[in-house]
Amino acid sequence: MKKILNITLVALAALVLSSCVWDLNTHLLNETETTADDAYQTGADYLSALTYINAFYNFVSSSDPGSPDISVKDAGQSELVRQYINLNELSVDSFKCSWTGDSYVSELQNNRWTATENAATIAVYTRCLKGITLVNEFLLQTAPEQLAARGHENLAGDIAGYRAEARFHRALFYYMLMDLFGNPPFPMPENIMGEAPKQIQRAELFTWIETECNDLLSGNDMPAKGAVPYPRPTKGSVQALLARMYLNAEVYTGTARWQDAKDAAKAVIDMGYVLHPKYQELFMQDNTESGAAADEFIFAVEYDRDHAQSWGGTTTMCSAFVGGAANSKISSLLGLSDTIMPESWDGYHVAPDYVARFELKGENWDGTGFGYDRERSDKRAFFFNEGEPEFIATTTKTGWRCWKWSSLKSDGTILDRSSANFKFSSCDFPIFRLAEMYLIYAEADARLHGGETTDPTALGYIQALRDRAGVEMPDAVTLDWLLDERARELMLEGHRRTDLIRYGYFTSASFPWAGKGGVPNGKVSLPAYRTIYPLLVSDINANSNLKQNPGY
Question: Where are the domains positioned within the chain?
Fold first, then answer.
């Protein structure tokens, strides 16, 4: 059993939000309790409230995983992780989708979204702001005066750590908003049942997140690595957030922070995380039980088919990439007794120009199969050829499929199909992992030294990734090579859009991809305003403090 889910959630199921996504109509209570004092009676209640915040990345409803609590018609499509991936990966060259009945799909993959809200922007924007509001309420309810009023002063030491963890979640939610939406509303505890929050500009929000993270790192309240059960956040999670943010600082603030990115990544690396020896095990159904996740994941979103069910997240990543024929064929080629994916949703597929970034040996593009010699190729390549490898279309169920996430377990077996919940994934999703820190360190060093790294430490990190992938080191570790290596190592983990923006390639006609801007060959430039998404019009209408992002 996954540790964090052994704790019974405190009575938070009746969370009710007003039409403004930043505001709360009620305290965090359950269906029977009527006051915050009823909800917070023991130390376990405070920990359970923190657990609820920790689970909010895959939360869709207080009733069941099929009933969304926001204005998105499909529960799976209302989940934060799933739509965070879509905003960052479907909008670039990572993958395409044939589900044309969902308007957000064509808008994202053709780079033609407008100020009109779609399921992806609604889900990420709303979930992040609801998560921030949860944290703000938690901080109010755990303030020293509240503990004293309840006679809980003896819990102050433990609760100080819980408050620090909650502040990390708030910083991460704000980072997501800053990266995707640029200039979001900025609700703080004083906005609970009070005035509407002001809007914060991107550079100012960067400074706030940086200050908040440094405060968490400098004090003793934020747990150190290993001090709390996986996957709760620790100082490593805070430092990793800073490393990623510093790598993109020039985009967010206009000022590069390469040395800070390098130093922050090194600080994470030195905390003792381990590069798990088998890449595939990071994305298997038992990545928690096998120890793979705890080795390498610095912060992760937990999924459990029996206790943390979601039609988004890794359930989507397992089932959306294959149709029935591909599911059966991949399973047969791998010698499995059952299908490798729990279901066959037949929607996602990968363009050949992205597949070509992997070093595949013994290519054979004819017929249906893997299309390459898997044993001699990059171990991070999980591709299946539907029979038309050079064809890519956003409306056709064909092309390359990906099985990076699957129903496989580390012992080579398939998850138990006798479970009533076998269709759900139990594979945790990494928000930060050690490999990303290696790549941040190397890229930051290359940025500091004319576009190529020769630093022995950086090269050692890259060598470790290449050794695990079973491929040779390049002649030179340049910036463009590192961008491709990030595409290979971090495929479909929510990085690609941010990477292309940092490199100046997202809007440039010199960096085409299939379907970019709705053009088949992608040889087109995109307007600069598309590097951020629009704020929700409904939120602007409800809050006169907000101004829409330029271009929308």
Answer: 1-92+118-200+523-552, 303-427
The rounded distance, in Å, linking the Cα atoms of 499 and 495 is 6
Q: Which amino acid is at 455?
A: D
What separation in angstroms does the CA of 518 have from each of 113, 223, 525? 11, 47, 11
The pLDDT score that the predictor gives to residue 75 is 82
pLDDT at residue 21 greater than cutoff 60:
no
In tens, the pLDDT along 134-177 reads 999 999 999 999 999 999 999 999 999 999 999 999 999 999 99
Among all chains, which residue has been given the structure tokens 């120009």?
353
Segment 44-67 shows an average pLDDT of: 87
**Over the stretch 405-415, which tens digit does the pLDDT of each residue have?**
999 999 999 98
The pTM score is: 0.94
Task: Calculate the dihedral angle through the C-alpha atoms of 298, 180, 263, 225, rounding to the nearest 10 degrees.
Answer: -20
Pick the CATH number of 1-92+118-200+523-552 from 3.40.630.10, 1.20.120.530, 1.25.40.390, 3.30.200.20: 1.25.40.390
- CA torsion through residues 538, 139, 84, 304, sign: negative
User: Can you tell me the distance from the alpha carbon of 279 to that of 489, in angstroms, rounded to the nearest whole number?
Assistant: 9
- Alpha-carbon dihedral angle through residues 237, 7, 291, 174, given to the nearest 10 degrees: -20
Q: Which 8-state DSSP code applies to residue 537?
A: H
Beta-carbon contacts of residue 322 (< 8 Å; ≥ 6 apart): 330, 340, 341, 344, 345, 346, 384, 401, 403
Is 462 exposed, middle or buried, given 0-12, 13-18 or 19+ CB atoms closer than 10 A? buried
First to last CA, the chain: 47
